[in-house]
Amino acid sequence: MPDLQPTAHSPRPYKGRFAPSPTGPLHFGSLLAATGSYLHARAQRGQWLVRIEDLDPPRAVPGAADDILHTLEAFGFEWDAEVVWQSQRTELYQAALDKLIATGQAYACSCSRSELQALQLDKPQDGDELRYPGLCRQGPLRPDQPLAWRLRVPDTVIAFDDGLQGRCETSLPDSIGDFVIKRRDQLFAYQLAVVVDDADQHITDVVRGCDLLSSTPRQMALQRALQLPTPSYAHLPIVVTMDGKKLSKSHAAPPVTAEHAASTLLAVLHHLHQTPPNSLQGASLPQIWQWAHAHWNLAGLIGASSIALQ
User: Fold this and answer.
1) Residue 271: which H helix or E strand, with range?
2) Where are the beta strands (DSSP E) in 204-302?
3) Among 279, 290, 260, 298, which residue's Cα sits nearest to residue 75?
4) Element (H or E) spanning 15, and its range?
5) Is residue 194 within a helix (H) or strand (E), and if so which, with residue range?
6) Where are the alpha helices (DSSP H) in 11-169?
7) What is the pLDDT of residue 125?
8) 11: which DSSP letter?
9) How far apart are CA 112 and CA 189, in angstroms?
């Protein structure tokens, strides 16, 4: 089993990652996140990994994971280690949960989502989850029911300096409360799995979309609880439609295709404010990547949380 002990605070070689969920084919928004993560890793002369976050079988689309990997290859992405599949790492997540239980930082909860909705609790400002009021903190109210496990969040403000979004501060008790790390259906939650994986793979820098910005304080709380290192974070603006809706699989965003890889990559670079020259129109993928590697700069994206699809 991989070692989950905290690492030393000496400088670590840059290592980034792209971690899609196989809930559908790669679309323009996820390609933009992959491109930003990839180019930033290469600009730092670092490694770039791919992880398939397939922890939620009910949401997974058959064949989507392989389709995503084939699409990345067709677009010219090159990763530096074997692809990691979260569905093959549940023993590692259980070990982390056992540690949290043993230290009193996780507790069993019998509350269902429908029960919490019936209480008409306030929703957090930055997410779609109900704020949990700690009903089971002293023990599950109905221990005979299926139980989830929640992290006992610290009563402190979690703050970090995001590479693009600036200073971010969150009080988890006020915004989300104790959050689920293993679900009532016995599936591990994304927050726990991603923290364990980032530590196990020695990820130093996470470049991803702003739709995951609200997850960062939760992941930092778990990192501290498990005594794991915290990566540096930079949250790219998400791609939105002209009416302001996030471009996503759930909104039937069309997949990107290898047939138009070169022109699509140029469009992604434009949306990342990299402004490729007109001379690259009609260029090959290797030529476009060569230019992108040489000119990558995040400065034009500082403070931007969304970019309208053009």
Assistant:
1) helix 261-271
2) 205-209, 232-236, 238-240
3) 260
4) strand 15-18
5) helix 190-200
6) 28-43, 64-74, 90-102, 113-118
7) 44
8) -
9) 15
Is residue 205 within 8 Å of residue 234, measured between CB atoms? yes
Q: Give the whole-angstrom CA distance, residue 172 versus residue 285.
A: 44
What is the biggest distance separating any 2 CA atoms in the chain, rounded to whole angstroms? 67
Residue written as token pair 């923290």: 195
186: amino acid identity, one letter: Q
Residues in the chain: 310
The pLDDT assigned to 253 comes to 74
Whether residue 141 contacts residue 149, with contact meaning beta carbons closer than 8 Å, is answered with: no
Q: Residue 69: count other Cβ atoms within 10 Å of its Cβ.
A: 18
**Mean pLDDT per segment of 10 residues, for the chain of length 310 residues?**
38 92 93 97 97 94 96 97 97 98 98 81 54 94 95 96 96 95 96 98 97 96 98 94 66 81 96 93 96 94 86
Residue 6: C-alpha distances to residues 3, 67, 258 (Å): 9, 35, 41
Q: What stretch of H or E contains 293?
A: helix 285-295
Phi, psi dihedrals of residue 49, rounded to the nearest 5°: -115, 160
306, β-bridge pairs: 238
56-65: b or e for each residue (b if 16 or more CB lie within 10 Å)?
beeebeeebb
pLDDT for the residue 3: 38
Q: Which residues pair with 18 in a beta bridge?
A: 50
- Which sign, positive or negative, has the C-alpha torsion 298, 50, 27, 293? positive
Residue 154 pLDDT: 93
Q: Domain spanning 15-308 has what CATH number? A: 3.40.50.620
In this prediction, residue 142 carries a pLDDT of 94
Question: Has this prediction a pTM greater than 0.85?
Answer: yes
Over residues 86-95, the pLDDT tens digits come to: 999 999 999 9
